[in-house]
Amino acid sequence: MANQQQIELLRQGVTNWNTWRKEHPETELDLNEVDLTGAILTGADLVRVNLSGAKLSAVDLTGADLSGSNLAGANFDNAILHAANLTRVDLSGASLQKTDLTEAVLKNAMLLDANLQDADLAGANMRDADVTNASFKVANLKGTLITADQLKKTRPPEDIPYFQEVSWDSVIDQP
């Protein structure tokens, strides 16, 4: 269960939150299933936070650091994660529909069964991310660092209703 004191502290603003994080670096953070819909958390230090099952629709996490966090089953629909650090996060089963992930770092992230329909991943770094059975229906992958081998593990286009035919080779940056 989410820690109410931590939720209240985060709702006081990013400046207070980040200061508290620096003063309490070893504190285990549990914000699972919290509802932060529409919150502005630009630049927040959310490293190694349990946000599993959280409601984060339309939240602004531009430039936030969520590295090492548990985000499994979280709802990020219509959120802004531009230039966010999502290194080694668990986004298994998360919903990221229409989410702005431009220039985000998703290195070594786990996106098993994640829904990235209509997400904008332009310029994102997905090196070594596990995208097994993830859905990228009509997602923007222009300039995304992702390999053909990774894309072969995603939900096949023929399994997605109304999928518009696209060649993965046209969206993959070759090293």
Provide a descriptive summary of the structure in words.
The chain starts with a helix and ends in a 23-residue tail after the last helix. The longest helix is centred in the first third of the chain and has 10 residues. It has a two-stranded parallel sheet with strand order 1-2. The chain is 13% helix and 2% strand. The protein has one domain: Pectate Lyase C-like. It has 175 residues and is low in regular secondary structure. It is built from three helices and two strands.
Overall number of strands? 2
CATH topology: Pectate Lyase C-like
* Strands in their spatial order, largest beta sheet: 1-2
Percent helix among the residues? 10-25%
The number of distinct helices, counting runs of at least 4 residues, comes to 3
